[in-house]
Amino acid sequence: MTPAPHDTPSAAAPAASREACARLDEADPLAFARGRFRLPEGLIYLDGNSLGPLPTAVPAALAAVAEQEWGQGLIGSWNAADWIGLPERVGARIAPLVGAGPNEVLAADSTSINLFKLLVAALELRPERRRIVSEAGNFPTDRYLVEGVCGLLGRGHRPHWVADGADEAAIEAALDADTALLVLTQVDYRSGRKLDLARLTAAAHAAGALVIWDLAHSAGAFAVDLNGSGADFAVGCGYKYLNGGPGAPAFLFVAERWQERVAVALPGWMGHARPFGLEAAYAPAPGLRRLLVGTPPVLGLAALDAALGAWEGVGPADLTAKAQALTDTFIHLVAERLGEAAGRLVSPADASRRGAQVCYAHPEAYPLMQALIEAGVVGDFRAPDILRFGFAPLFTRYVDLADAVDRWAAVLAAGSHRQERFQVRAAVT
Ligand SMILES: *Cc1c(COP(=O)(O)O)cnc(C)c1O
After folding, report:
1. CA neighbor of 241 nearest in space, from 27, 28, 386, 46
2. Among candidates 87, 379, 34, which has minimal Cα distance to 254?
3. Which of 4-8, 38-42, 394-398 has the lowest mean pLDDT?
4. Is the pLDDT of residue 8 over 60?
């Protein structure tokens, strides 16, 4: 089949056969990391961007926390096992994955709640400005929170939505002298398009504004360099590429220069300078800890902590290179084997412009993805018509790509996605 013109991949000559893929696996400097995950036999898991798989170290670590620390140590484990320090300790393990200092990342709450806290903190640092620039296609929770914070503050803040899919130049053009804040998700959850974090951070600063980056589809997918880019604030997920488990605590980043100046939107006792002083008046803790709210979720943090062991010995440059090579190879295989039957490639053709995911728009995307999942290729569907495949560099093999495309071709050939039972939508897609 001839690939459609828009499907032209960027790489010079990516692997186009299973044998070529097997050779790429042999040469893969990250191949050692796959053994750090439990992956069901025969299943091709291309959804680590939605829920990372179980790292082999997690069940025993969770059992130890439950049996010993909780079961035997009981309340004494807050001190003896340093449960109280988990948000900072886990944050320090996430920090190198996003180019942050160990004292600049806190593991806490959900991405949404962290975003709320940082929106308020950032707006308070630009009190004379009213405009918040974001993208119309931003992830819904980001959109809702921007709107919500504007309403809640009641001081005339207003969002300015640049067009869905706007490029860096269009976003820069929206920054004006009244712009307090730029709020962006670096990798678009539907298309995988990746924004230039350093360039947009510099542009916002030049306009006198601050930036909050949502790294939900960046952290753990490729190297992120927050400090090298001069970033102010960031949030990200624990359960996607960081493999912390369903509903894992998220993280937030505050550059050291802002830490003593950020306002606290949710002044809970865990963010107090002396939580066990039980004082009547709130006094923020020094540094990042003031952004804690309530009691840390110890079991969730323990799972995330153990999961982060999977990153030992993983070089950031290898991560980025593998994300690009996996996505290039997949696009190439799909173009060769499926051509237009795959749908329309909605991810950038240039690997440096996309995260670790590849998406196709297809009119039958929902039933097709259900049929693919039944055939052992787990990706996901994103409304209205997107087939999304994530390629977590830590455990995805190149041969998985060849096998996934084979199974996709077989589904299309058999028309198995046309079955009635694949038309009904589940609660979680
Ligand atoms: C997954 C995702 C989130 C998730 O937020 P939660 O509060 O963890 O549910 C936020 N932002 C983006 C861009 C995401 O992709």
Report:
1. 46
2. 87
3. 4-8
4. no
Q: Which two tokens stand for residue 206?
A: 């030049």
pLDDT exceeds cutoff 60 at 11:
no
Ligand 1 atom at minimal distance to the Cα of residue 214: 13
Substitution candidate for ligand 1 out of 237, 252, 293, 382 with most atoms within 8 A of CB: 237
Nearest CA to ligand 1 atom 5: 111
Residue 315 token pair: 């070089």
Question: Are 247 and 270 within 8 A, CB to CB?
Answer: no
List the structure tokens of 154: 């009641």
In this model, does residue 333 exceed pLDDT 90? yes
Q: Work out the burial of residue 207: count CB atoms within 10 Å of its CB; fewer than 13 is exposed, 13-18 middle, 19 or more buried.
A: middle
Please tell me what DSSP assigns to residue 187: B
The alpha carbon of 21 and the centre of ligand 1 are apart by a number of angstroms equal to 32
6 pLDDT more than 60 = no
| Six-digit token string for 60 | 């025993």
* Token reading at 96: 């190198």
Q: Give residue 182's identity as a one-letter amino acid code.
A: L
Q: Is the pLDDT of residue 29 over 60?
A: yes
Spatial distance between the Cα atoms of 394 and 37, rounded to a whole number of angstroms: 9
Name every residue whose Cβ is closer than 8 Å to that of residue 215 and which is 6 or more positions away in sequence: 98, 186, 224, 234, 235, 236
Q: Which residues contact 352 (CB under 8 A, 6 or more apart)?
A: 194, 324
Q: Which of 11-25, 61-75, 121-135, 411-425 has the lowest mean pLDDT?
A: 11-25
Catalytic residues, which ones?
A: 139, 214, 239-240, 388
Residues with CB under 6 A from ligand 1: 110-112, 139, 141-142, 185, 189, 214, 216-217, 237, 250
Predicted pLDDT of residue 211: 98
CA of 253 to the centre of ligand 1 (A): 15
Q: How far apart are CA 157 and CA 173, in angstroms?
A: 19
CB–CB of 285/259 below 8 Å? no
- The residue whose two tokens read 């590429």 is 241
Does residue 119 have a pLDDT over 80? Answer: yes
Asked if 333 contacts 271 with a C-beta cutoff of 8 angstroms, the reply is no
- Read off the pLDDT band of 122 (50, 70, 90): very high
Residue nearest to atom 1 of ligand 1 (CA): 216
CA of 138, closest atom in ligand 1: 13
